């Protein structure tokens, strides 16, 4: 894993950022999120959003911003209704690729993922673009992913934890393809992709657990990735989060090991991991190396309903 240090800067001239913003019943915090994107120090950006059949005023807010900022705001209107978070994001990814076309200029376009209820720090996009340029090193045809830490706040904006990675006990350094098959280390709202990664990741299949997890897998399998240790946004923790941040508590080692080996409570999650691995194997059949096919076979084995076997596979994949 490439780690970018806080404060890294590099020119972001001659590039464009498309911000992909799926929305569903997000009216309460949506304007604050949008204002923080429009206030970015990097100004060559387009916000592409789609409302997923909200029952609140989200769509009205989006159209108001579109009318106020016609050069940097587009609402994807359709009659598809509620698709769910994963499919909503996939629809935005495909629309972004179609609108940018396949010109040379499109290879200088980067794609940032956004939630609907956070607050971005003013240099978020500039820092991510600088890191992306360093990661690509001029090779825009190789899939590339950059993501960062974030600060956890409550619904009033008060800080709960200055680092989500520390708060949740995450290990962003465990970014191998095998490790990503069983645990996603990318928080989607911090992520930026280049065009090559967008094309490889689209469409997001219905069998995947979440869009950012799928993107992380594609980057680990076929490209490269970098992590910025600096928190680039305030992640709002509230009752309506789709996933949310949960504090990690270190367990008692001996009892933890024994209980985890015999614990059957995570069977459904293991089955979801296996389903996602199967989808990846199918989607990229013929493009995978021997090691990738081997670890995918192990991940598919997580569907076997026998807790000790699942735990052994989990531990092997985590360390490969």
Provide a brief overview of the structure.
The protein is built from twelve helices and ten strands. The chain is of the alpha/beta class.
Q: Uncertain runs with pLDDT below 50, 5 residues or more?
A: none
CATH architecture of the largest domain: Alpha-Beta Complex
- Name the helicity range: 40-55%
Counting DSSP H or I runs of 4 or more residues, the number of helices is 12
CATH superfamily of the largest domain: Spore Coat Polysaccharide Biosynthesis Protein SpsA, Chain A
Total number of distinct structural domains? 2
Structural class: alpha/beta
- Based on DSSP secondary structure assignment, what is the total number of beta strands? 10
* Order of SSEs: EEHEHEHEEHEEHHEHHEHHHH
First-residue to last-residue Cα separation: 14 Å
Mean pLDDT: 89
> What kind of sheet is the major sheet?
10 strands, mixed
The coarse silhouette is globular
CATH topology of the largest domain: Spore Coat Polysaccharide Biosynthesis Protein SpsA, Chain A
Q: Which value, in Å, is the CA radius of gyration? A: 19 Å
CATH class of the largest domain: Alpha Beta
Proportion in β-strands: 15-25%
Structure write-up:
The protein is an alpha/beta fold and 320 residues long. It has 2 domains: 2-236, Spore Coat Polysaccharide Biosynthesis Protein SpsA, Chain A; 253-319. Helices cover 42% and strands 18% of the residues. It contains 12 helices and 10 strands. It has helices at residues 27-38, 58-68, 85-100, 124-136, 164-168, 177-182, 195-201, 211-222, 253-262, 267-283, 290-300, 307-319; strands at 2-4, 16-23, 45-51, 73-75, 109-113, 119-120, 144-153, 159-161, 192-194, 224-236. Strands 1, 2, 3, 4, 5, 6, 7, 8, 9 and 10 form a 10-stranded mixed sheet that branches. A hairpin with a 5-residue loop joins strand 7 (144-153) and strand 8. Helix 1 (27-38) runs parallel beside helix 2, helix 7 (195-201) crosses helix 8 and helix 10 (267-283) runs antiparallel to helix 11. The protein is globular, with a radius of gyration of 19 Å.
